[in-house]
Amino acid sequence: MTRGMVCAPQPEAVEAGAMILKAGGNAVDAAIATALVQTVVDPQMCGIAGFGSFHYYLPDRGEHGFLDFHGRAPENVTPEMWEDLIESETEDGFGYILKGRVNDIGYGSITTPMSLRAYDEALKRYGTMSLKELLLPAIEYAENGFMVRPHVSTFWNLVEAAGRVPHIERIRQIPATRKIYVKEDGNIRKPGEILKNPDMAKTLRKIAEHGVEDFYSGDIANQIISDMEANGGLLTHDDLKAVNVTPKEALWVDYRGHRIATNQPPGGGIMIGEMLNILENFDLKSMGHNSSEYLAVVSEAMKIATVDKDLYVGDPNFVDIPVDRLMSKEHARECADRIKRGEKMHVPRMKASETPKDTTHISVVDEHGNCVSLTHSLGMPSGVVTEGLGFMYNGCMCVFDPRPGNTGSLAPGKSRFTAMCPTMVFKDDKPILVLGAPGGTYITMAILQGILNVIDFDMDAQQAVSAARICTTSDVIDVTNRIPRYVEQELVEKGYTVRRSPLSYHFAGIHAISFDDDGNWVGGADPGRDGMAMEV
Questions:
Q1: Is residue 235 in some structural domain?
Q2: pTM of the model
Q3: From its phi and psi, is residue 429 left (phi > 0), alpha (psi between -120 and 50) or beta?
């Protein structure tokens, strides 16, 4: 048995990871087992045809870094192919509304499926158990069924603002998808009802037997591409065969005597670094947690990082990103000085609409000091399931800029920016916090506040993820319903537009593990999701 802790948004997945630790696996094994069960029990948040960012710290092996597996635009993509279809940009700058919603749902919305390759690569490099062993819990849930949880049901019934396809269409528009998720009477399952997915079970069994190459170049690949060709999809055999995982070093930032390790572009870690550098120039603790002064300063840092992200941050294989300048203390001081002078950053947008937040996360630690922070996603689920395969493909094409010549514009083989940023905080070269979150562009803003809560306000993981949050990715400060109304009024008096959510817990779903002074673990599962932390 290996002592450790797993924290994630799904109890079934957490338990699966914990049982792998109990069976003697390490943190990497547990993280992959958790991710595979998430594929089954949260099938629109993630999947084997998704993408993500895998952060590992393995002190006994002297290994620390990332496996980057962001989805890539298929080779059939051209920069101008959607230029005439633009209706609007999402308010937070994380996607576009196009005529016919061709980038939002259906076969044209799919980028290369990366996740399965990444899980296999992580195990081969750093795990102690086989993918075949770790697939067993996921196969069991697919075959025997899982209980629909409130968050899954909420997602299915969610109607996005201003032009996004209602989520119910993502599970009933494609016949093979509808067969899995819609009952014979035309209704979808309610919380507490059981959902079985025997086709996914068969696919996972086939991968367990024949390995991941079956998915990328074998029989499963043939089924995938036949479906794409029959329905106007962009993916080809060459796209699948080219899928690989990219090892990357961590992106580091120093903050108040701590060292924070996060991911490099096209991940959102650069925003975390820039915001922390700016906020280091303020005595946040003396302002008071979630005071109007504190929220105004944090919001300005969020807006500055958002504007810089929109202008400069994309796929480093296609874009020359000024990482050194954006991460510099000098740049941060200049930004802080503007905030101190009372200047308010403007976040430019086209006609704005909201964007979905469809992702999931895992934090794992074990008794050997190994730590894993894994964020993986479908972006927005495409709604597409190939008949007989059972899993849903990602819908990541929606975030590419349909206007040629911009940082996030379409290009063959290009990855788009994503806010996912699995992060670890170190003090005296020892980890004190492992965290990450699902939540679209809310992710970076939630992770920032989680880090501030721990470092500046001495909270443990559960306190840090439970504290009321805000999010500012436009000229509007969005606040949860637990931010006091007098604080909101003070922000309005400072000249800010404030929008109150009816939700008490919102703006991403942080799942974290912190270490107390004695080295004990404290798990923090976001109360706004269905998850938990489990120690073995």
A1: yes
A2: 0.96
A3: left
pLDDT > 90? residue 517:
no
- Domain count of the fold of the chain: 1
Q: Which of 359, 360, 375, 444 is an active site residue?
A: 359
> b/e for 218-236, b at 16 or more Cβ within 10 A?
bebbebbbebbeeeebbbb
For residues 245 and 69, the answer to whether their CB atoms sit within 8 Å is yes
- Give residue for tokens 């998704």: 50
CA dist., res. 475 & res. 100, Å (int):
29
Band the pLDDT of 440: cuts 50, 70, 90: confident
- What's the token pair of residue 140? 């069991």
Q: Looking at residue 88, what is its pLDDT?
A: 83
**Dist CA 305 CA 212 (whole Å):** 38
Tens of pLDDT, residue by residue over 221-232, are: 999 999 999 999
Asked if the model's pLDDT at residue 353 lies above 50, the reply is no
Q: Does 17 map to a domain? A: yes
Per-residue tokens: 221: 């690949």
Cα separation, 366 vs 377, whole angstroms: 24
pLDDT, mean of residues 122-132? 98
359 in active site: yes
- Residue 126 belongs to some domain of the structure: yes
Please tell me whether residue 183 adopts helix, strand or coil conformation.
coil
What is the extent of the structural domain holding 237? 4-49+72-79+98-244+380-399
Phi-psi region of 440 (alpha: psi -120 to 50; beta: other; left: phi over 0): left
- H helices present in 237-368, as ranges: 237-241, 269-279, 284-287, 292-312, 323-326, 329-340
| Spatial separation of the C-alpha atoms in residues 378 and 155, rounded to whole Å | 13
DSSP 297-334: HHHHHHHHHHHHHHHH-S-TTTS---HHHHT-HHHHHH
90 pLDDT band, cuts 50/70/90, is: confident
Q: Which helix (H) or strand (E) holds 486?
A: helix 485-493
pLDDT for res 425? 98
In angstroms, how far is CA 419 from the centroid of its own chain?
7
Position 104 in a domain: yes
399-422 tens-digit pLDDT: 899 999 999 999 999 999 999 999
